[in-house]
Amino acid sequence: MDSAQYAELFLTESREHVSAINHSLLELERVGGARGTEAVGAIFRAVHTIKGMSATMGYTPVATLSHEMETLLDAMRRGVREADPQLMELLFQSADLLEQSIEGAVQGVGAPAEMASIVTQLRDESTAGKKTPRASMAIPISAGGEWSAAMPMGAGLLVRVRLAEGTPLKGVRAFLVVQAARKLGDVTTSSPSIELLQADEFDLDFAFRLQTDRSHGEITRALRNAGDVADVRLGDDADVEIPHQTMEFNVAELAHGAVTTQMRAVAAPVPQQRSVRIDLRRLDTLMNLIGELVITRGRLAAIAGASEDVALVETVAQASRLIADLQDEIMTSRMVPVWQVFDRFPRLVRDASRSVHKQVDFTIEGKDVELDRSMLEEVGDPIVHLLRNAIDHGLETPEERTQRGKPPAGRLVLSATRDRSAVAIRVSDDGRGIDRDRVLRRAREHGLVESGKSDLSDDELVRLIARAGFSTAERVTDLSGRGVGVDAVYTRVRALGGSVDIRTVTNEGTTVTLRLPLTLAIVRSLLARIGDETYAVAMTHVSETVELRPALLGSVQGREVLKLRGEVLPLIRLRTQVGYGGAAARGLEQAIIVDIAERRAGLVVDGLIGQQEIVVKQFDGVRDAPALFGGATILGDGTPALIIDVSSLL
Amino acid sequence: MSHTVLICDDAIFMRTMVGDILQQAGFEIVGEAETGVQAVEKYKQLRPDLVTMDIVMPDMGGIDAVREICKFDPGARVLMCSAMGQQALVVEAIQAGAKDFVVKPFQPSRVLEAVQRVLG
Q: Per the CB < 8 Å rule, is A51 touching B83?
């Protein structure tokens, strides 16, 4: 394994731990210091692991920061420091800094600027509350060569041991040496005392008395085998001048007993996620390959279908089933639970609501719902947008809420649910709702609606605030409802093949639903024909198809409609939309009934070709690509087809 | 025949690193555990020649795991993996039956020396 792979592993694992730290910090803040022992323990453990990993990677800033955090957390665990608001703030800041320095370290960037100040603050905090400062031991540090340990008096052979320079945890090493000696006989006394030895309170050498009948050679060998031993001397050696006095410190209050028990408390069971780590690039490559394979399968099926060869047709059919299974498996392996992204939101909501002095009761539902990994990454920012909007504009201040007879803390719910082949992500608040009148006024000022219009339906409202530039250019921030960047959310989600739906009720709140396909790359689609061109519509949006018999046609307010089993649906002629000239083909046209949320319409095409899996190619860098198209694909026979973005039609 | 090793650490990063060091030195990694409970279970099942044991792990810490393993097999050879500042815990682990320790950050040579001492 090379260092880049270690770095990647470090990054993935550290991110999980940072997320756990934030999670537990919020928990600690919620339940308060007295009942937060478990949370402090969890944070300690995560920080501790990061410390160990970063030190191994040589990421000094991360190691230093996590070390200081660990020291403070340890003081908190021992009850020496209490989790007051100021301390919590420092810990939150430290967690942010830790995240930054982890990302920075992996990218080879230096420590963030505020590192020094945070580290100092952490140090101050960990020492601030100490009731008894650690006793400093006046053990002289000897200049090389001289033996500094006093010779213990008593029965038995004098054994003096010097550890190698730079021995890690020399106290423990000394303990191991003494343990080794105990296997040979009785250790009667030691200098310094065993307690001090264990607490590292000595220079490199120490001495003890051993009652044994073993040979000197045997003793020396046994002690050297304890590791990190530079020198062993046996017997009272007149060559070395050592004052004959026994230093009997009794500083056993160095509390390793206490530390030990606390450490156990930390090791409390924590739910573990079972996971397998695969390089993401490998998954992406697999996905691309299966995409190409799916296209080829289409072509192969077409060729086989045209031939009379039964064996060929059968084999192709079987290969197709296998490819479908393979595709399912690969897609499943790319699925990750939404909590991987959602877990950072509680922290974000906390910070955002504090900055605007609002109380927010935030809950997350459906954490375990799964979504394609790249889809999940893409959708993170839009969700952040929606949460921020809800806090900034949707929810009222505690005073305002109390006046309106609502509880002072606003409710904000983020939920994920799975339906059909889509995942719905909902951000819902119980705030003031979008002010329709003000949106309408703005829209009228800009000639976006007819001047006589006095009411906005939900759909019209969504269309208006989702208009690029409408919100940002006109500072809809001033409107009481949401506005900032809804168009950005809308654009992003549509680019992912999803749709946005907004429901709002004045004084009761707003719910925004993002409906996303499970995966980005492969979409089951209905292929339709306009003249000699082929278009694709994602099956997610197709509810049925009907032959456009004249009896079904009608007109409402001068607009063409489709009357379907008592329901009146607007008709959209794709031929006109795509600008394909000429009259419709002879014979009956077809209508594809498309729906997004509760909005439905009939999409008129010349004819239907059939259903097919298509691999979506986004229009990367194509300027002014019409909003009507969500991408393009190559069909089995090698011809290109444009993919209709249904949400742009409705 | 090469010696068999069970690696116990809650961080995959650490397991990978220790595993790489030992594997390159000719050891055979027969199992990994990420909690103390798993460590004890896997020890009983695999009976490895050597166990590397992290101290801080969820679901039974490393020290209790050492205690359980040594209760089951007094001849068990366990090497503790510790961070700086855990003296008291390492001492406790040794009292519980661990044979030696290494300190993070790991240097391959130090790890291998300690392993030789434990096996020797």
A: yes
